[in-house]
Amino acid sequence: MRGTDLPGHYKLAWPVLEAVGDLGGSASIGEILAAVTAREKFTDAQQALMHKDGPQTELAYRLGWTRTVLGATGLLTNSSRGVWSLSETGRALLNDPALTNEQRGEQVDKRVSDYVASLNATSRVVRDPADATAEPTDGGPETPSQEADWKQQLLEHLLAMAPDAFERLAGRLLREAGFDNVEVTGKTNDGGIDGRGILRIGLVSFPVIFQCKRYHGSVGSKEVRDFRGAMSGRVDKGLFITTGTFTAEATKEATREGVPLIDLIGGDLLCDELKRYGLGVQSEQVERVTVNGSFFSGI
């Protein structure tokens, strides 16, 4: 694999399943992305590759399809909060002592290939299931359907915001999340510091500095180191908020031992938090009405 080439959607199935197993049998979307990135040793350039015109990266897009296919084949299940877990079938496969790791991967590939073949037959589209670069057919699972659609739409709105407006939105989000004394500095000469606040947890409180940047791609380790340099001598806790994603090296740098920790909020988590606090995102529950015919016959 060279340059920015990435494995096809279905060739990522075994790495995803194995990553979820290594993470204890369940994982968030962000944890899966980080684990697969580390396992497959994807470069910063591969992680930064955008899907079409963005705002989603190509790797995140392909992993979205992969998770959905693994769910459709009965190897993973997912909750409404975006946590993916091994199904009984998936767990049994990973723990089968009669199989080598290579054989487990082959079985996953076969399940996925059979599933894709059935989709091709249903949609009457001739496609080689073994084609790693093939785009999934329209008859296939979605990415993961409506979730990907609303998040992409939301990220497009966030990227279109003026920088100072995005900083104010970040400040509003932190207030909703329980921060006190939130201040958005907006100073261009403040060393990359966009604001500060105090997080109170019970009887304990501590100051936090935050940086919020609209990125159309991946944030690398350099940006995280620069932010930590701006934090030096001020606080021991930082928040880096972005519309983009963070490379594996950036995540590693943020949690490096012996230096102040930085919490990373990428675009996917940012969308979840805006939805959680109802900031520009509203959720609607559809009422389902069922008529019980036996009720009337019993009168």
Model description:
This protein has helices spanning 13-22, 29-40, 44-48, 58-72, 88-94, 101-123, 146-160, 163-176, 221-231, 248-254, 267-276, 293-297; strands spanning 26-28, 76-78, 83-86, 179-184, 195-201, 204-213, 218-219, 237-242, 245-246, 261-265. With 299 residues, the protein is an alpha/beta fold. Strands 4-5-6-8-10 form a five-stranded mixed sheet, with helices on both faces. A three-stranded antiparallel sheet has the order 1-3-2. Strand 5 and strand 6 form a beta hairpin. Residues 128-134 and 137-145 have low confidence and may be disordered.
**How would you name the oligomeric state of the polypeptide chains in this document?**
single chain
Distance between the termini: 70 Å
**Overall average residue pLDDT:** 83
Strand order within the widest beta sheet: 4-5-6-8-10
> How many E strands?
10
% residues in beta strands? 15-25%
Helix/strand/pairing category: alpha/beta
Main beta-sheet strand count, sense and barrel state:
5 strands, mixed
Count of runs of 4 or more consecutive helical residues: 12
Taking pLDDT < 50 over at least 5 consecutive residues as the criterion, the unreliable ranges are: 128-134, 137-145
Principal-axis shape: globular
How large, in whole angstroms, is the Cα Rg? Answer: 22 Å
- Residues in helix, %: 40-55%
Number of domains: 2
Task: Write down the secondary-structure element order.
Answer: HEHHHEEHHHHEEEEHEEHEHH
